[in-house]
Amino acid sequence: MTSLDEYGTKYKHLRMTRTDGVLEVVLHSDGGSLIWGAGPHRELPQAFLDIGADPENQVVILTGTGTDFCGERDSSTADARRTSRGWYNIYWEGKRLLENLLNIEIPIVAAVNGPVGYHAELPVMSDIVLASDTAVFQDKAHFVVDIVPADGAHIIWQLLIGPNRARHFLLTGHEIPAQEAKELGVVAEVVKGDRLLERAREIAAELKKRSPLTLRYSRIALTQRMKRHVLGELGYGLSIEGLALLD
């Protein structure tokens, strides 16, 4: 078990506050929109583990900072992954990134505050996904920059929008605006940006009216199918992605 006093301030890229059992997790880079890179890739798996191990958390709100949820990437450490040892670190963290998120046994409400082009699967793995009207979902990290799209995106997007749409999405860099994402069933509600967090808090407050065990077991039941796919396919996908990089 962990407590918010122990983990709440130890992560550089996550700001966490809790009110009446609702934990708000805000992703950021130096106070601005999250820039994906080695830091978030290393921190998020451990943060998700800590969040899931804290019995005082009853609902999580996951959101970003500024105009983007995660629209840019820090490429300064990209060369490190082109060795077998460097890729193993990516493999180890990449498995736990999705697995530890799914092992948070309380409902998660995502408030996608803007474009997300890197690890766009993470917010849409939440139980309830709200998106700002400025949000856009895209996979900028893989095929369009000559990398195999197989570190979780290949699993989650096929589950959410179907195999053919997902393959088109991952192989073309297609942008899915918030309204289209709602029509595809990825997003539950599209909300004006200035009301997004307020709406997430309203939903979290409604969820929290249920008993703690109902919240926990509901999350467990509703993520079991996704967990099976992640367990069976994520390690394989990460392995072949790494093989292509070592060419």
Characterise this structure.
- The protein has 247 residues and is of the alpha/beta class.
- The protein has a single domain, classed as 2-enoyl-CoA Hydratase, Chain A, domain 1.
- The chain is 46% helix and 15% strand.
- The chain has nine helices and ten strands.
- The chain has helices at residues 4-7, 38-52, 84-102, 121-124, 153-161, 163-172, 178-183, 196-207, 212-245, and strands at 14-19, 22-27, 35-36, 59-63, 72-73, 108-112, 128-132, 136-137, 176-177, 189-191.
- Strands 1-2-4-6-7-10 form a six-stranded mixed sheet, sandwiched between helices. A two-stranded parallel ribbon has the order 3-5. The protein has a two-stranded antiparallel sheet with strand order 8-9.
- Strand 1 (14-19) and strand 2 form a beta hairpin.
- Helix 5 (153-161) crosses helix 9.
- It is globular, with a radius of gyration of 17 Å.
- The model has no long low-confidence stretch (mean pLDDT 95).
